[in-house]
């Protein structure tokens, strides 16, 4: 794995070329970070993937273009140099899929088909925690609309020549400025808004734990699930994105028992069965979920779906 960084005349613009030791599909790897088709932090344009982030050194927007075994990155903003340094981990260079045993033909085929997909490691807690809380117990399209509204309203303009409409998500102080009425307008009920508020009160502590214990996800999960309104599902959503935890099983996910059961057991698994059933794949249980998701495995969607809940009229 090699990484070369060339600073161009502006100190807030950095060009990077990352040559991973094993093939990495950058776009599909990072697709798990997108919060719906209209995510203002994630866009396909100019022949590549545009993303924004808020790093400790400041906001950044960056453009990724993949050319065979090279991933070219241009980054703009105060966080550009730090983004370049974080790029390999962000793209899953620390992920170890070679230790994964598929055990069944369907997973073996998916692992070959998506051999370049890694578990990314952003290292940024609030970037994943806030939208994960927003996504609790609601349909995806409603959660994505709320995320789009809040980031567009309270985020900052993307630095550099990013596509129009792209934003950098708020920092902790920016999220604290979101008032109850704005959560209401975003169709986020008071329970989820309170859970975000509880996390914001210890945001620095959570980030410090993620920095110090990235290879001990249990420490971070215990801290997260000690907060009101944050359970194992939400912690897992943080774990596989922030820590690169390939075992971050999203227990409680509406699709987990249906997808894993239909594809691997020939029947839909109950919530009380799925964790035990997937135990043989530890420490790659989230990888199993991700491969099944990418492969489109799962039963036909004929059953009842979550009802649309519009809290703005309550």
From TrEMBL:
A GO term (biological process) for this protein?
base-excision repair, AP site formation
Documented EC number(s): 3.2.2.21
Origin: domain of life: Bacteria
Q: Which GO terms describe its molecular function?
A: alkylated DNA binding; DNA-3-methyladenine glycosylase activity; DNA-7-methylguanine glycosylase activity
Q: Which CDD domains did the record assign?
A: ENDO3c (cd00056)
- Cited SUPFAM superfamilies: DNA-glycosylase
What keywords are annotated for this sequence in UniProt? DNA damage, DNA repair
Q: Which reaction does it catalyse?
A: Hydrolysis of alkylated DNA, releasing 3-methyladenine, 3-methylguanine, 7-methylguanine and 7-methyladenine
**What is one term from the GO cellular component aspect held by the record?**
cytoplasm
- From the Swiss-Prot or TrEMBL record, give the protein name: DNA-3-methyladenine glycosylase II
Organism whose genome encodes this protein: Nakamurella endophytica
């Amino acid at each position: 794995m090699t990484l070369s960084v060339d600073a161009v005349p502006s100190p807030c613009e950095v060009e990077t070329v990352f040559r991973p030791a094993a093939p990495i599909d950058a776009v599909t790897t990072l697709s798990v970070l997108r919060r719906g088709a209209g995510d203002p932090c994630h866009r396909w344009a100019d022949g590549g993937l545009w993303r924004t982030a808020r790093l400790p050194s400041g906001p950044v927007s960056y453009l990724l273009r993949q050319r065979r075994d090279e991933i070219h990155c241009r980054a703009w903003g105060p966080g550009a140099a730090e983004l370049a340094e974080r790029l390999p981990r962000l793209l899953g260079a620390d992920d170890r899929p070679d230790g994964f045993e598929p055990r069944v033909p369907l997973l073996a085929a998916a692992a070959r088909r998506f051999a370049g997909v890694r578990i990314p490691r952003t290292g940024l807690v609030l970037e994943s925690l806030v939208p994960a809380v927003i996504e609790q117990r609601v349909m995806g399209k409603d959660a994505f609309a709320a995320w789009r509204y809040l980031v567009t309203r309270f985020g900052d303009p993307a630095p550099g020549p990013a596509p129009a409409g792209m934003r950098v998500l708020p920092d902790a102080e920016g999220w604290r400025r979101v008032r109850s009425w704005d959560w209401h307008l975003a169709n986020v009920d008071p329970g989820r808004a309170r859970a975000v508020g509880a996390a914001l009160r210890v945001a620095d502590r959570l980030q410090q734990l993620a920095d110090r214990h990235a290879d001990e996800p249990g420490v971070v999960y215990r801290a997260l699930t000690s907060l009101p309104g944050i359970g194992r599902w939400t912690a897992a959503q943080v774990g596989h994105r922030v820590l690169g935890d390939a075992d971050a099983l999203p227990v409680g996910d509406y699709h987990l028992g249906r997808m894993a059961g239909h594809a691997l057991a020939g029947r839909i698994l109950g919530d009380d069965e799925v964790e035990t059933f997937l135990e043989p794949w530890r420490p790659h249980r989230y990888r199993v979920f991700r491969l099944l998701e990418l492969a489109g495995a799962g039963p036909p969607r004929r059953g009842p779906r979550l009802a649309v809940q519009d809290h703005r009229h309550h």
